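Ticket #4471: structure output looks truncated?

Reporter: J.K.
Steps to reproduce: submitted the chain below (839 residues) through the standard prediction queue, then opened the result file.
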Amino acid sequence: MLSRHKNWILLCCFGLLIWSWFTWPLPRHFGSAIPWTERQHEGGSRVRELVPGDHLQLYYHFWLTRDMLEGHTPAFCPPYEFNMGGEQRAQRFDPHYFPFSFVYAVAAPAFGGPAAWNLAGLASILLGIFGAFCLARRYAGSTGAALAIALLATAFPYRWITLLGGSPTGYGMGLILWLLAGLDRAIRDRRPSGGLVAGLALLCAYASDLHCFYFAALLTPCWCLLAWCLDGPLDFSRQRIRSTFTALLPTLLLALLALGLSTLASRHLAATDMSGGRGWADVQRFSPIASGLFRRQPLGPSNHIYTGVALALLTALALLFHGLSRRHQRAAEAAAQQPSASATSPLWLPVVLLLALAAILMLALGTNGPAGGLPLKLARRLLPKFTMIRQTAKIFCLVPSLLTVLLAVLLAPLAAWPSRARHRWTTLFALLALASVVEIGLWFRAGLCALPDGMPAYAAVREHAEARDNHAPLALALPLWPGDSHYSSIYEYGIVHSRVRLLNGYAPAIPDGYRERVLEPLDSLNHGVLDTAQIAHLRTLGVGYIIFHEQPYPAKVSLFPSAIALRRLLQHEWLEPLATDGAIRSFALRDTPRPAAEIPQLWGPPRYLPAHHWTPRRQPTAEDKDFAFPLTLRAPAAPAPSLRYLLCLSGGGTLAADGGTPLTVPTATTWLEAPFTPPYGDIWRVVAGQPRMEHALITAGEEWTLEPGETMRWAAADLFHLGVTDTRDGSVSLDPLRVAQGMALYGPCLPFPAGRYRGTLVIHPEQGSDPDAEVGRLQPDTMGEGEQRLADVPALDIATNTCIFDYDGTRPLRLEFHFHRRLPAQILALELERLPEEP
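Returned output as attached by the reporter:
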């Protein structure tokens, strides 16, 4: 008993140590931040406030569990997202990531939300390391080997990639270890307790993560067959079948319960955009490449299959050791000696496990798998529901469990070796295991998301509504996304602190009718355009509030910078500003228009800098017939003054838009204006010659001209930026707690005549700041295919913030401010001066 307790204490210590190391500096911010990424590539502090991502979405669902248990939210019928009316709020069963959400719900009242979230993550790690030990102990030759293998399984990178990224897969992976251990105990030992453990693990896997549940369900019959074959000679006696069935009965009953609940909960998918499964192109975007197994560079989805060199070497050495052990065993048997009892696992077992891991790897590669993704094609054709899988690397949730058994089987003969040889092999394996943990630990650089104590802009909506006896306020959050964008996770955090209901939201499966009732009729609000028909539509839907998020506001949601939408909303006669919380502002729909005297005057006229650019990859040749340049938008363009194209053309000939506008193309490279046909733009077809289109963009408003000696100035708010706008002077504040290191402001993204230019970033010094302190770097570049850096500029301080460069005028000019994130910065304006030509 004492030895057993010692093992559990050691496992707890291992789990706490590896959690502290891999998540550092999370232990220092345990009660105020949660992890959002496993590898923060930017420098400086690893803590940023309110970073959008899946971690905020999962945090919202954990909070929902707590709120339902406390009676504040109707059970299985949360009204907070995609609330398009009563008919859309049908009750739907959702397990809400039990049991980990339950850990959060119990701990949050005492420790606060961030600490409760981190406790749930730590609980999942401890649960997993205990499960790995129980599974490894059934195959390993010693307790020490089982402890070491459990540590390796817990350190497997994909577990931490998903856990630190806020994916429920990171929580559910530990349950698969318990599933295999329980099935093994039920079948090989005929113990119903094993069947109960396996059934509970499968049920909790369903509740915590559907990917883990799906892949575990596929693995379960295969593992049952393997365990049956391992249990001595193959006999199908009635007694063996009866005792095995009795032991597996709890698993069967709980598996049927999980399957029934899954079917019940997934019925709503028939009314979403996921009803037909994931398309091949959608899967292709998330398919890793094979080199991601060992490469440490940032590779996007390919990093998800990273395993490290040391772990691969350890596995290869274990295979070699197992082969040597088999050879020695055969030699002993030939000499009529007693074979080692620790090497009794069948010869085929490591082969089967290796083949299973190889199959998992080929499926994880997705469309980049062998023969053009043939394994994935077969799986999508033969396995039920496999077409619902978009991120094929999710199948790596099975690897720690199978790797645990493989290493335990390969190292089991170690206990029977002579003492000196055993110590040498043990030392070698221990060093490789330590190297693997160190290699993986050094690869991680956890980024933390600090969670503010409140969301005042959302709270103002609830207070305003309750003052008018409206206890269920419905709002629209901007920017408006199709519904599956992780940027919308910030809206969910606003719900946590206000219980404000939203017309939009964030979900992997977008409800039926959302596009027709919300996205299409209201898309122009991303540009701040809200006409009387749209106001009437909002009132019909029950919406009385608009919550505008200035950041993040990526270029894909608007043709122009966020300032265009912000201006229009602030000056809209039917909107009443309620509260400002940094980059978040809330508005109420008024019953009557605002008097002109109440409409604020802002920092200057609107500047319509272009966000949408094209760089055609193909140009017409003499053999091409009916060649065209499609310059169309996915979403209709909102009204803007003098909306037009700017086209960089050369080669001579004629282009004509489908709208009927002909355009004569000069031979030399020239920028020409062309009309834009609302709402989606034009397809420009080659009518004569072989005209070349080097670049195209959409702009509006004033003409962009700059003569020698002239200077053009843009308020910082009129540029593309990641900061917070001061509507009094158009300045932008960059807070290191909110803004990532890197490009934080840029513009004007327009073409100008060739010549020498001076770019100046006007920075307002913070009170008491050092004038020589570095704030960032102003970098002139051109846009388009093969971006060109026009000058190497040293770091800027508050007193020196200019750069001089030569520019040929053939591509749009973009001046980028790269924020160093060492201290706050307030950017007033960007100035571009065309220097006089030298005589």
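Triage note (M.O.): checked the attachment and the full token line is present. Residues 613-699 form one domain.
Status: closed, working as intended.
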